[in-house]
Design goal:
Length: 246
């Protein structure tokens, strides 16, 4: 009886039904699908997800936040945690993000980035390039297109790529957002070619998004299961649905 009781205790101790995940804001809309599919394979799993800019999430990890898996918007933030001793592994690429240009103010987006020089365009919303890789990519695209100096005074920085989307829809003339958000059923009223267009990927460095298991997740078997799920075929299928590349 004692042996049985001890075995039961050890079994419970070795399994944790909760998993705390820090994820870059660009995966917000894909996460409902991720949760649903992961739960099919792990019915007892409870995924607690905190979404935000990668830079801010890194700061939270370093300040003791109890995250067990980190899904960054680039490789640098994820690998930085590994190099600093906060992650169990070097980052693996789980998806490649795309930048979209969005406007609900009737501007002709078929002109490409040249539309930003229109005097009627007063505000250009991007994510903070210091903490959000999609913001970095936007600035890089402006410079590579040769228009940065002409439009830099119009740029307004949002706290995250999610906030950039919100601000663009509420008040911005044109915004640069994660293309993934536009493939959500919740955004179906906005049409590609009219309300948003994909930015030429040649204008910015590939947004390779990295995932790591954090030290807090070392003994949580769900962390490894989730990591493998994201990198596996089911995870890839979800990200493809939301417009990511590989």
């Amino acid at each position: 009886m004692k042996k049985f009781f001890l075995a039961a205790v050890l079994a419970v101790a070795g399994f944790c039904a909760d998993l705390n995940i820090a994820a870059a804001a660009n995966v917000t809309y894909a996460f409902d699908d991720i949760k649903a599919e992961f739960k099919k394979l792990n019915p007892d799993a409870n995924l607690n997800v905190s979404l935000g800019s990668s830079g801010k999430l890194v700061a939270q990890v370093k300040n003791g936040a109890p995250f067990e898996v980190f899904m960054a918007a680039n490789m640098d933030f994820a690998n930085g945690l590994y190099k600093d001793g906060f992650a169990m592994n070097e980052a693996a690429i789980y998806a490649k993000g795309k930048v979209a240009m969005l406007s609900v103010r009737g501007f002709d987006l078929s002109k490409g980035l040249e539309v930003l020089k229109d005097p009627k365009v007063k505000t250009i919303i991007i994510a903070n390039p210091k903490t959000a890789p999609y913001g970095t990519a936007s600035i890089e695209a402006f410079k590579n297109a040769g228009i940065y100096d002409a439009i830099k005074d119009k740029i307004i920085e949002a706290g995250s790529i999610g906030e950039a989307l919100s601000q663009t829809l509420k008040a911005g003339d044109v915004g640069f957002i994660a293309a993934s958000s536009m493939y959500s059923p919740k955004m179906s009223e906005y049409k590609e070619g009219k309300d948003f267009v994909l930015l030429d990927s040649k204008l910015y460095t590939s947004i390779d998004q990295g995932i790591v298991i954090l030290k807090n997740g070392e003994k949580n078997e769900l962390a490894k299961k989730f990591y493998d799920f994201i990198l596996g075929e089911k995870g890839k299928a979800i990200f493809q649905k939301y417009g990511y590349d590989f």
